[in-house]
Each structure stands twice: as structure tokens, then as C-alpha cells.
Design brief:
The chain has about 280 residues and is of the alpha/beta class. It has 10 helices and 7 strands. It has helices at about 10-20, 35-45, 65-75, 95, 125-130, 150-165, 175-205, 210-230, 240-255, 265-275; strands at about 5, 25-30, 60-65, 85-90, 105-115, 140-145, 165-170. A 7-stranded mixed sheet has the order 2-1-3-4-5-6-7, sandwiched between helices.
């Protein structure tokens, strides 16, 4: 299984996958309809296929398009796929929302990057600048076989390890668990918290704290706080004063029912909103 069609090859995620697929052992065909995307691929020396016929002979078809477009795109591409092929998506949202075109005679594999950990270490400082992953810094990935033959999971993971490389670990989870991780955990919850922290930085700068001093102070404290909370420093705990401030913050601006973001109905609402 080495023939791959990458749909949306000139988009944000498509270009990242192209970076690794173009130098791999996979025989890859590139589909892109937007002129900016075609031009970006052209600068890489990659020719875009002038028809979608390649999807019908490929072992894997990767749908690297935005969530809101997956319903329309999958309804055009997936009917063309050969029996036994594997449809690959890069996010669980469309699948969980029931917006992927379904065929019983193909497999559906879903995979998403974890991105390089904030505690990641690379011997080369240049690699540390790869914050997104998929180029220089190692990252982990999550994978799910939504439907299909068990042996297609291993083939899907191998492909995912290729286009997300370098990969440290691949975690097999269910599609529903992937939905709990994204959007619920990392977008609805974590992005909101981090956004508020960034807004707090802006506020103290407005109040007269020198920007560089405020940024250095915040980011340094974030590192040690996260190291303590995520068990990177076994046995380390917050000081009594820090714990008192933490409890005050929880009372003043965190709602008691914040864990509702993980309730099944709430997760479904989040997914429907982004698809």
C-alpha cells in the first residue's frame, strides 16, 4: 500500500504533509483547487494533478481540508476510491458529526498531531524552533481506526508517522476519545485559559510594567508552574503563598461547573459548531 492522494495539498496542513511525503517512499499525487495553493506547491517543484482520477487508484486518500469543507469534499472524493482503500482525515470532528461520506468497503483512519511538547528537548537549538512539529522537532501523534480492517490500522499509523515525522510515540485511541482531546481539552478549555493569560500580560503592560520584564517573568513562571503540575519535577509542590493565590483565583474567575465542557452533549455542540 504505497499509492497516496493528498487532497488539499496546498493548504495549511496539506503543505506540512507535503514537506514529508515528497521525500518518502510513498507514491504521492497532489490535488489542489485554489490558485494560491497551486502556486505554493509550484514553488516546491510539485505539479498538481489535473484530474481526481488518482483518488481511484490510491491505497490512501488523505483529506487535508478544513472541517467545514469535509462533508462536501468527502462526498466527491470517497465515492471514487477503490474497494479496500483507506480514507484518512486529520481531525475527528467531521467523523463525530456524521459528516464524512461513508462506505462500508473502505477503511477510515483518523490521526492528529500532538505537536512538540513544551518539555521537549532537542540537541540542536534550531530544532527547538519547530513549535508546530512535522519538520525538525519530534512529536507524538494520536490515531484511531474509525471503521475497517484491523490490519489497516498499522498501515495508517505507518503513513501518519511518515507525514508527521519525526514522531516519538503514536497513541492508539478511539475517535470519541480524540474528540475529548480536541476540541474539548485543548481548544475549548486550554486555548481559552492560555488566551486569558495572554490578556493578563497585556493588562500589566498597560499598567506600566516594561513589556520585556513582564514577558520574561510570566513565561518563566509558566514553565516552572507547568513542570510542577505535570509531574516534570517529582515531589515538587507550590509554596503556601502560591497555593493561597491559586485558590483565590479558582473562587474569583473559574466557574464551578467548568468540567461540563467534557460532557457528551457539550462536546457534540462544540463539534457541530466547528463543522
Amino acid at each position: 500500500m504505497n499509492k497516496v492522494t493528498l487532497v488539499g495539498a496546498g493548504g495549511k496542513m496539506g503543505l506540512r504533509l507535503t514537506h514529508n511525503l515528497r521525500n518518502s517512499d510513498y507514491e504521492t499525487s497532489y490535488l489542489e483547487v485554489s490558485q494560491p495553493g497551486i502556486e505554493k506547491l509550484g514553488k516546491l517543484g510539485i505539479a498538481v494533478q489535473d484530474s481526481m482520477d488518482c483518488a481511484g487508484i490510491s491505497d490512501f486518500v488523505i483529506l487535508a481540508v478544513p472541517d467545514v469543507a469535509l462533508e462536501k469534499v468527502s462526498s466527491r472524493i470517497i465515492p471514487m476510491m477503490k474497494t479496500g482503500a483507506v480514507a484518512v482525515t486529520l481531525d475527528p470532528a467531521a467523523a463525530l458529526a456524521g459528516k464524512l461520506f461513508f462506505r462500508d468497503d473502505i477503511s477510515y483512519f483518523i490521526t492528529h498531531p500532538c505537536h512538540p511538547s513544551i518539555f521537549n528537548w532537542e540537541p540542536d537549538e534550531h530544532k527547538m524552533k519547530d513549535h508546530f512539529g512535522g519538520q525538525l522537532a519530534k512529536q507524538s501523534i494520536v490515531c484511531s481506526l474509525l471503521h475497517g480492517k484491523e490490519e489497516d490500522y498499522a498501515a495508517g499509523e505507518m503513513l501518519a508517522r511518515t507525514f508527521y515525522a519525526p514522531v516519538a510515540r503514536a497513541h492508539r485511541i478511539t475517535t470519541e476519545q480524540m474528540g475529548l482531546l480536541e476540541p474539548a481539552l485543548v481548544e475549548t478549555l486550554a486555548s481559552t485559559c492560555v488566551f486569558v493569560i495572554r490578556e493578563g500580560l497585556n493588562e500589566v503592560i498597560k499598567m506600566g510594567v516594561p513589556p520585556d520584564a513582564a514577558r520574561d517573568f510570566l513565561l518563566g513562571h509558566l514553565r516552572i508552574q507547568m513542570a510542577v503540575l505535570f509531574d516534570e519535577l517529582p515531589g515538587a509542590v507550590f509554596s503556601d503563598a502560591a497555593n493561597k493565590a491559586l485558590q483565590r483565583g479558582l473562587r474569583e474567575f473559574i466557574k464551578d461547573d467548568w468540567k461540563k465542557v467534557f460532557e457528551p452533549e457539550n462536546v457534540r455542540d462544540q463539534i457541530n459548531a466547528i463543522t
